[in-house]
Design brief:
Elements lengths: L9 H15 L3 H4 L16 E4 L4 E5 L5 E7 L25 H15 L3 E5 L11 H14 L4 E4 L11 H9 L21 E6 L10 E7 L19 H19 L11 E4 L15 E2 L15 H8 L2 E6 L8 E4 L2 E5 L16 E11 L5 E13 L6 E9 L14
Parallel strand pairs: 2-6, 3-4, 4-5, 7-8, 8-10, 10-12
Antiparallel strand pairs: 1-2, 3-13, 6-7, 9-11, 11-12, 13-14, 14-15
The chain binds 2-acetamido-2-deoxy-beta-D-glucopyranose (NAG) (3 copies).
Length: 411
């Protein structure tokens, strides 16, 4: 394993943060601009409400005690029917376009009926798009049309067309049925699309007014802007500071009255570029496949350590490397890829495009009510003839300690 520089010390992180605040002044009102809340899904299985303290929105577990999230990574959408496919068999080329990506989204949503869809970046391949706004509209259209709550983060290709990174994220937060947000209010932060979503306990249960599953969305950047460092971007100290504060505020709330809870509610983190720690695994300790290198930033900005310290994060979900689709557990945190979804993205002919599903299940309390999260499972859906389900595995069980165990392998 390559030697990596140590993460930024906390003192340095704090210094960065206060310098950023001081410099921020005028930009602040733009950053704190609130986005309009858009109304919801008819089914009522997942309710939503604005949460004034977090600037976040909340979702809710349904009566079945399950909350399901579909992750779509690397759609690489461009101009729809006019945009051809990469890495399919030669005889498939004439009939293959971005519309196959759209068809796959509809197909997997119909099969899984998720409560939330998360798009983890490279949503559009903007270099090949005539109009970034139109590409974004087309890429997210299935979630919008089906009135499904959805959230997105940026990859490294989303801004390579007619819109800047900020422009892309602003366009996204203005779309129908999205819960995406630009950035937290009243705080200087790097990137666009850093926010959290809170999922409350079932209506009528003791935990109805608490967030029992926390989702964090982070902008992992595009490319380094530091001349001495080459390669991809990374999660900056300001973002880590925001994450740290948000996590600790959520944990505080969860542990306080009414209905104080002992352990923190589990957290799941979504962004685009994998962390350097993704390369600590081999086939003996992950589920899924690794068919290409880990394209993380060339330096380690310490976000993994920050998450381990926070104590609530159970799993991280990225995209970026389309041919990798594994989950491996390191120091109590599952590091997962979704595998490539889009047909205008590089892939491998004969190796189906895919999506990752994550589902959280509640425990029953002594009085028969739904309680907090008991377990979190994941599997993948392939865009093959049967929409095959593969690599079903438990990511986390309540009460399980944070080290690697045999029973964390696929069930
Ligand atoms: C793309 O969609 C077309 C039209 O439905 C279909 O005929 C074709 O087989 C699909 N191609 C791939 C690679 O799935
Ligand atoms: C949750 O909040 C609602 C609305 O304020 C209230 O009616 C309900 O009793 C609360 N439930 C619990 C378990 O605290
Ligand atoms: C995975 O197993 C390899 C040995 O095959 C070991 O070197 C590596 O440290 C393990 N990684 C983790 C995260 O446990």
């Amino acid at each position: 394993m390559k030697q990596r520089p140590p993460p930024f010390p906390l003192l340095l992180q704090l210094l960065f943060f206060f310098v950023a605040i001081a410099e921020c002044g005028e930009g602040r009102s733009a950053l704190s601009r609130r986005v309009g809340f858009r109304g919801g899904r008819a089914s009522g299985d997942a309710a939503r409400e604005a949460s004034p303290t977090s600037g976040g929105r909340s979702l809710r577990f349904g009566k079945k005690g399950e909350f399901k999230i579909l992750q779509v990574a690397d759609m690489h959408y461009a101009d729809g029917r006019e945009t051809g496919c990469l890495d399919v068999f030669p005889d498939q080329l004439p009939t293959c376009s971005d519309l196959n990506t759209t068809a796959f989204i509809y197909r997997v949503i119909r099969a899984e009926n998720p409560d939330l869809v998360v798009f983890t970046g490279d949503n559009i391949f903007a270099l090949d798009s005539k109009d970034a706004a139109k590409s974004l509209d087309a890429a997210f259209a299935p979630a919008v049309e089906l009135k499904l709550p959805w959230a997105a983060v940026l990859g490294n290709h989303d801004q390579e067309g007619t819109l800047s990174r900020e422009g892309v994220m602003r366009h996204i937060v203005g779309m129908g049925h999205t819960l995406s947000q630009l950035n937290p209010s009243g705080m200087a932060i790097d990137g666009f699309g850093n926010y959290n979503l809170e999922i409350s306990g079932t209506d009528g249960s003791t935990l109805a007014n608490k967030s029992i599953l926390n989702l964090y969305f982070v902008d992992s950047g595009d490319y380094s802007t530091v001349p001495a460092i080459s390669g991809y971007g990374w999660i900056k100290p300001t973002q880590q500071f925001w994450f740290q504060q948000t996590s600790s505020r959520l944990q505080e709330k969860y542990k306080s009255k009414p209905s104080p809870q002992k352990d923190p509610a589990p957290g799941l983190v979504y962004f685009h570029i994998p962390l350097p720690e993704y390369s600590t695994f081999d086939a003996s300790n992950f589920t899924g496949v690794k068919q290409e290198g880990i394209s993380s930033a060339s330096i380690n900005s310490g976000f993994f350590t920050t998450m381990v310290e926070a104590g609530d994060v159970k799993a991280v979900f990225t995209g970026h490397d389309h041919l990798n689709d594994f989950c491996g557990k390191l120091t109590g945190i599952q590091l997962c890829y979704a595998g490539g979804f889009g047909y205008h993205a590089y892939g491998k002919a004969g190796w189906s495009r895919r999506a990752r599903v994550v589902s959280a299940y509640l425990e029953k309390t002594v009085n028969g009510d739904w309680g907090g999260v008991k377990s979190i499972k994941t599997w993948k859906r392939l865009d093959d003839e049967y929409l095959s389900t593969i690599d079903n595995q438990v990511l986390w069980n309540k009460g399980s300690i944070g080290r690697r165990r045999r029973n964390d392998l696929p069930t």
